[in-house]
Amino acid sequence: MKDEYLLDILFSFFLFFFHIFCDDDTMYGLIWLFLFISNCYHNSEKE
């Protein structure tokens, strides 16, 4: 199993639990931040 898939799964669980405690605006911010970091991570992997 690749690390990037494991990170995605862990983050999915994190978002699920975080959603219980946070409002939607915080969730959208976290999702955007994760997508940004994930994109940078994948770009650095290609090089």
TrEMBL record:
This is Uncharacterized protein.
